[in-house]
Design a protein that fits this description.
globular, single chain, mainly alpha, 154 residues, two-stranded antiparallel ribbon, 6 helices, binds zinc ion, 5% strand
Length: 154
């Protein structure tokens, strides 16, 4: 897990590593995280760090910085400007990295690389939007960052 990584990036990697579809990840996540610690953010963050065996300081940047701590997982937290699109930095993507700050509406350039952000349309379909976004991001990472699953990015 990388600091300030996006929830969709985390989800994509988790799904690949465990060879499960996004829907199954959501069921796992709900049962093992959301159902246990509803409304207690600090408890959730500590629980996630233990569950994933990741440093608390990093987990906090991924799950503790936006909204209720679920990044863009919660549909209501994403600005409607990005509805149906996935925003990313092409150079970060080459390194297997996607951050929630890349999807901030007012941000036009990557603060790390100072290049314009790119967007990719998320296909419509019967699956939940987060599932389609996760699949799209995984597809983009596959195409641009070979080895991204093994790397510590994303
Ligand atoms: Zn970048």
């Amino acid at each position: 897990m990388s600091a300030y990584g996006s929830f969709s990036g985390f989800t994509a990697k988790f799904c690949r590593l465990n060879q499960i579809p996004p829907k199954q990840f959501r069921e796992f996540w709900y049962a093992s995280v959301e159902a246990c610690y509803f409304g207690r953010k600090e408890g959730q963050i500590r629980h996630i760090a233990r569950l994933l065996d990741e440093p608390l300081a990093v987990v906090r940047t991924v799950f503790g910085s936006t909204g209720m701590g679920w990044g863009h997982f919660s549909l209501g937290q994403r600005d409607s400007v990005w509805y149906g699109k996935l925003a990313y930095c092409p150079l970060c993507l080459f390194e297997g990295y996607h951050s929630h700050f890349h999807e901030t509406r007012w941000l036009k350039q990557c603060p790390i690389h100072c290049v314009d952000l790119a967007t990719e349309a998320v296909p419509q379909g019967p699956c939940a939007r987060i599932d389609r976004e996760t699949d799209k991001l995984a597809w983009l990472l596959d195409a641009n960052a070979p080895g991204w699953i093994a790397a510590d990015g994303g």
